[in-house]
Amino acid sequence: MIAQKDLGPLILAYNATLEAVWEGAGLQNRRGEFQQVFGVSYEISQRVSVGGEMLQEFVFPEWRDSEHIRNVFVGPNVWFRHQTWFVTLTALAQATDTPDEADFQMPTIFGIGF
Length: 114
Known about the structure:
Layout: E1 2-7, E2 10-23, E3 29-43, E4 48-61, E5 69-82, E6 85-90, E7 92-94, E8 104-105, E9 108-112
């Protein structure tokens, strides 16, 4: 689910995702992940926006919440648009101290309008 509200040059966004993950030999390691992202950006021009994001992640090993794994990542983003395509780049650092979790993520979204 994606929700966005434009307030002049200020852009507020919320994105919620439910994901199933299978890993390991024979895909035996299963887990679910619920992620929600809150973002705010400022439109510098029709082609460029800059802002920040916070990603909150809930991890459910074997689709159970017995371990209560919660991760939070925060960081800046930049969005660039040219004609019918766009790219968003975000640099996220882990704000929690979860072992076996990446300390840094760089999600990139590329899209084409048609």
